[in-house]
């Protein structure tokens, strides 16, 4: 008999490194019923070690139940990305824990890894804090609610931690091109900025400099409309060189390149409908949003690894920026067709080493008026 479970896991330390604990909850996927809970002290260690310990405890508990399919959900971006194979494990201290978790994964028929916001991981978080409290000889903190004591409550807003360790990112769409003004699909075609686009790029540069007076890097899609926009920004933020990242390039729109939405709707109605309905569908001869998302996630992982705790500017196109923001906001695919990004619009977000993300602005355009 097959058993499909959800493992929610968390860990934390008070000091990083400091006294640490972890917790894990195993739930029946169909009903959400809690089947097992695990929590314990992790000694004196870091948040990431505690998070991996929570994952291992959850996988062990799922194995005890003879589960066949496991959906792992954690609010640690680092653990989820590393276990999914998208991020390298550079910290030698985490490699043995990741290897142990990978061995446990092999016991199941299927395991998936998904990041969830912290407020959706409250059960495991409560157990991790309980472990730390008990290790310190304390009763559970006032107001702390354990999984077995759940009651309806209004979610509390998340307060982001201090910015010292955050990688601060400005996402900038390139300035206008002739295709922008005509509302045409502009993917891999290398069209230049118009005079208006040049002015927009300079205005965006001023806005970015107002947010981040100094930046560690200005990263750009290889297409000239982005590189030129990035050059204006680089000149305003300390003169750092522009670094081209191939994976920041726009979606390949294939046969739709250079055409308007109305033209595509008329000539490819079925293909357009399928494309709007699923991110796995590509335009004829082009690239799906799923494929774009995969390479853009890789690019962002490289950025976070190369510039921890720094300010970085990423100059790209509509599709990559929308996909970055979709992932940062844990939004669904409908987000991609509901968000509008202006030429030279600026969005900002902060990313912490533990995977926490704060999206601060989306599509700022006041500098363009």
UniProtKB/TrEMBL annotation:
Active site: residue positions: 174, 250
Stored SMART domains: PGAM (SM00855)
This protein's GO CC annotations: cytoplasm
InterPro entries: His_Pase_superF_clade-1, His_PPase_superfam, PGM_Phosphatase, RNaseH-like_sf, RNaseH/PGlycerate_mutase, RNaseH_domain, RNaseH_sf
Residue segments, region Disordered: 134-159
Superkingdom of origin organism: Bacteria
GO molecular function, one term: phosphatase activity
Domain RNase H type-1: 1-141
List of residues binding substrate: 225
Coiled coil, from the record: none
Protein name stated in the entry: Putative bifunctional ribonuclease H/phosphoglycerate mutase
Protein's organism: Actinoplanes missouriensis (strain ATCC 14538 / DSM 43046 / CBS 188.64 / JCM 3121 / NBRC 102363 / NCIMB 12654 / NRRL B-3342 / UNCC 431)
Source taxonomy: Bacteria, Bacillati, Actinomycetota, Actinomycetes, Micromonosporales
